[in-house]
Design a protein that fits this description.
By secondary structure, the protein is an all-alpha fold. It contains twelve helices and no strands. It folds into two domains: 2-57, Orthogonal Bundle (Arc Repressor Mutant, subunit A), CATH 1.10.10.60; 69-223, Tetracycline Repressor, domain 2, CATH 1.10.357. Keywords: DNA-binding.
């Protein structure tokens, strides 16, 4: 039992060495310039050692990007706390998500869009196993959402709560969820490809305008805006 505990501690320590090295490279050179060799050199190990802990480079970039999302995870909890209803929280969560993601498009792409191979949904859970302290100040009802990488599932859980309270029509949940995600992905893609013709603040407002329009269209009669 003792040896197993020691092995787990050693593995977590090695993970942190490589993740911290990757974070340093991202901050200094950008996410596109991360390589296994650079990470190994920075951490003081050879490249082969990294593959004992990470099956591919994308996973290492993912974990480093998760660490760089800390500001967002702290901010979204505060933002959602201001909402009185599930639908309020849904809008506030998207506002926070848009603000942070448009400022760090490469990081959010690495976490939520990038191809991570097999079992990508397990990676966030693994991350918080290594960095459990990052969830300490997160409300219990928000933790299941934050440890979910799949954006469809993240949004659907809040919309289901809104439907349960009669705020939106249940048969609109899937369409509304998919449309809002596609709007955000389209804008993020434009930013990553340098095809944005306006400022980030304008892009954020545009995304939220569309999201709010579709949310209003999904509201039940009693909750419709007059």
């Amino acid at each position: 039992m003792f040896s197993l505990t020691n092995k787990k501690i050693q593995k977590s320590r090695m993970w942190k060495y490589f993740i911290d090295a990757t974070v340093g490279i991202i901050n200094e050179e950008g996410i596109k310039n991360v390589t296994i060799r650079k990470v190994a050199d920075r951490a003081g190990y050879n490249s082969a050692t990294i593959y004992n802990y990470f099956s591919e480079l994308s996973h290492l970039v993912f974990f480093a990007s998760m660490k760089l999302l800390k500001g967002y995870t702290e901010d979204v909890a505060k933002c959602m706390d201001k909402g009185k209803t599930p639908l309020d929280k849904y809008i506030l969560a998207w506002e926070c998500f848009c603000k942070h993601s448009l400022q760090k498009p490469d990081i959010f792409h690495a976490v939520f869009i990038m191809d991570l191979g097999d079992q990508p949904d397990e990676l966030i859970k693994r991350y918080y196993e290594v960095y459990p302290a990052e969830l300490i100040n997160i409300p219990e009802d928000l933790k299941p959402i934050l440890i979910e990488r799949n954006m469809t599932k993240r949004g659907k859980s809040i919309l289901q709560s809104a439907a349960n309270e009669g705020q939106i029509n249940e048969n609109q949940i899937d369409d509304l969820n998919e449309i809002t995600i596609l709007i955000w992905q389209g804008m993020l893609t434009n930013i990553l490809n340098n095809r944005l013709d306006y400022q980030l603040e304008e892009a954020e407002l545009l995304i939220m305008r569309y999201i709010k329009q579709f949310v209003d269209s999904a509201k039940t009669t009693n909750n419709s805006v007059h």
